[in-house]
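Subject: Sanity check before I submit

Could someone independently write out the structure tokens for this chain? I want to compare against mine line by line before I put it in a report. The sequence has 176 residues.
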Amino acid sequence: MKKFKKIKLVKGGGLELHFNDPIVSGSETYGRTLVVKSTVDIHPDLKTALDAMKPEFATVAGFTFIVNEMMSQPEFKATGDQSKYLEKLRVEIYSRIRINGISIAGTEEKPVIIILGDMKYPKSNATMAINPKIELSKDEYGFEDDLKAKMELVISEALEYQEGKQAQLEIAFEEN
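---
Independent answer below. Compare away.
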């Protein structure tokens, strides 16, 4: 099975995959990284798998820290309207985030994921690129196990992309 190092969306559509491809020569094994780039649009399932990482990206990048912290404090005792407003704020933050891919590092025992993404500033077309690094073997944020499962889904979808699972074409038929 391929060991991906990076899975990244390509501007304008498509996917760029970086993976280890060991070469065995006698008793020696040499490592090399292959890069495969395709301009064929991705399947919506892969986009959904990447977008599922928005909450973790927002938390590690500090965008939802205050909202999460307030909501977790028993002393806060938010009213129904306050809770709705804070949830609306969290959804607004997520809507400004674009997850462009992941990089995978570390070892089998201590995997590390770097979420490649950016966030669009309000009232502007400018974006801020942030690539938080998360050690999945630690329990620093409390969501590492869930994020590892999300990473594995992205890897699975990238493998399926290589096998032909790509964009879906929708055709509208007129009803008679």
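---
OP: Matches mine. For the report I'm noting this point. The first strand starts at residue 3 and ends at 9.
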